[in-house]
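Course exercise 7: structure representation. Students receive a sequence record and must write out the corresponding structure in token form. The form below is the worked example handed out in class, using G2/mitotic-specific cyclin-B3 (411 residues). Read each field label carefully; the graders check that inputs and outputs are placed in the correct fields and that the protein name is recorded exactly as given.

STUDENT ID: A-19
EXERCISE PROTEIN: G2/mitotic-specific cyclin-B3
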Amino acid sequence: MPFKRGKHCTVSKPKGKVNGLDKQVKRTSSSPQGGPKKRSAFTDLTNTNKSQNGDPAKNGKQGKRAPTSKMVKTTVCLKGSKSVPHEKHCSEAEGPVEKALLADSSEAHPEEQSPVPQRLESDGQEQKIAEAFDIDKDQAGDYLMSPEYAKDIFDYLKHREEKFVLTDYMHTQPDLNEDMRGILVDWMVEVQENFELNHETLYLAVKLIDHYLSVTVAMRESLQLIGSTAMLIAAKFEEQCPPSLDDFLYICDDAYKRQEFIAMERNILQGLKFDINIPVPYRFLRRYARVARASMETLTLARYVCELSLLELELVAERASRLASACLLLALVTKGLGGWTGALQRHSGYALRDLASLVRKLYAMLASPSDEQLKAVENKYSHKVFFEVAKIPLVHIETLEEALSEEDIHQ
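STUDENT ANSWER:
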């Protein structure tokens, strides 16, 4: 099944200054691809190419769909932004819940972590987690990491997934289509990268958009406003020092007024009944990578697959924990590090048979030709900061099928 990716317009270089700042490309270790694209509203997205090529449904199955777009894209410099954290304004301390989540990062050197056995022995009765499976034990000496709460937190997040199951909602949106959503998410990846926001902020913002559009009919003129406001809400939820409203007005090229942002923020929160603690796959991915004792390169490869999946409307229905598991499994097989272990099954709750179909979808997504104008994620993970994982060749399909057809591990 081919995956479609939309297009957006060419880049025009800015002239002059904005707020006294030269518009230039910002390049940092966390923003390898330069500054975010300053765009006006998504007012000219159409299905021109699809209508010219015949039946839209058939064209969607034949390959890429590319709506025309006349959005203005201008490379800007966010240096001096009011959102830049400063020692005098941002506290270095984090709460116990945040520390417990950060404790699951596999960014530590893999050799420093406790070994995890490959298979889980069981006598058929419910048992306490064996000492070798307690991945939080090595954090017991740091009270800020709250290792005693980590497992309970992730059990709670996994339980909450059931409340946020989505289906394909685009048929309820008469003025929007899948390609427009892809363009919006592609732009949000650039914004997250160049505002230097947490990855959780990007994932949560995309979740907010999908859940809001599933309960509210929106016009294309307001799509960028919805995306920008969702990013603002997510930043307030996840960041210690979120970007200001002025920052989002700026990157939207003043296409919207301050009161429109405030009104949209209220609409989104009311539409979601103020329940925005939506589980995101990035959190599960870091914890499962810790279980697998994956290296940073392997984790980054899984992150690339997971972030690329944000562009695909077909995958919005997937539970965050299952998507994270499938992304990690595909990364492990690609790197030749084996398959799904007993420890991973115990901590994720998914057996190999539960992940096989989703792994095949992710593989098809990577194998399908991408739209040349929708490359934010691929360009981001092609940088050496991210180990150039986007350039890693796909594992051979026979190798993947062999890994997916292995007998289920014993519980």
